[in-house]
Amino acid sequence: MHVPDGFINAPVSAAAGVVAAAAVAVSLRGARRELAGAGTGGGTGADRTAPLAGLVAAFIFAVQMLNFPVAAGTSGHLLGGALAAILVGPYTGVLCVSVVLLMQGVLFADGGLTALGINISDMALTTTVVAYGVFRLLVKVLPRSRRSITVASFTAALLSVPAAAVCFTALYALGGTTDVPIGKVFTAMVGLHVLIGIGEAVITALTVGAVIAVRPDLVHGARDLARPLELRTSPLASTAPAAAPDRTADEPTPAPATAAPRRSTRPLWLAGLAAALLCAGGLSYYASSSPDGLEKVAHDKGLDTKTEAHATADSPLADYSVKDIANPRLAGGLAGVIGVAATLAVGTGVFVVLRRRRAAAAPAADTPASAPASAEQS
Question: Whole-model pTM?
Answer without folding.
Answer: 0.86
